[in-house]
Amino acid sequence: MDTPKHSVSVAAVITDDQGRALLIQRRDNGRWEPPGGVLELGETIEHGLRREVYEETGLDVEAGPLTGVYKNLVQGVVALVFRCKVIGGQLSANDEAVAFRWVAAEDIIQLANEAYAVRVLDALHDHSAVSIRHHDGIRIL
Predict the structure, then answer these.
(1) Are 27 and 112 in contact, with CB atoms under 8 Å apart?
(2) CATH architecture, range 7-135
């Protein structure tokens, strides 16, 4: 009997000096999400976070605090979300992202589906506890 497997992804809620978060519009599905992706085997969490952000945005970031852990119960993906700040690079469209938008907290729910909007909102709210949530890829369960 095969043991079910999970994958681990990382995402960055990159903030600017106005308190807005950077969302990317994914080329593959057109959705607005924070940049991120699946960790490679043997890769550290921070390295994977920085690699994914650079691949999707062209930005170099510094990882800040872990703000949430989210599990997609349908696909078996556990996502670790970190608040980050830009330390270099320049936004540029690429194979994974077609557009970028800096979004205020009150506008995020208009662009992103609930499962991704909540990650950004959790990261933008200053609190000492890490959010732990479950979703089906679209809605929080």
Answers:
(1) no
(2) Alpha-Beta Complex (3.90)
Give the total residue count for the chain.
141
What are the boundaries of each domain within the chain? 7-135
C-alpha 46/C-alpha 53 separation (Å) is 11
Cβ-based burial of 131 (10 A; exposed 0-12, middle 13-18, buried ≥19): middle
Strands (E) across the chain are located at: 7-14, 21-26, 32-33, 36-38, 59-72, 77-89, 97-103, 131-135
Summarize pLDDT for 8-50 with one digit per residue, the tens: 999 999 999 999 999 999 999 999 999 999 999 999 999 999 9
**Alpha carbons 3 and 103: distance in angstroms, whole number:** 40
Q: What is the DSSP letter of 140?
A: B
The pTM score is 0.93
More confident residue, 129 or 22: 22
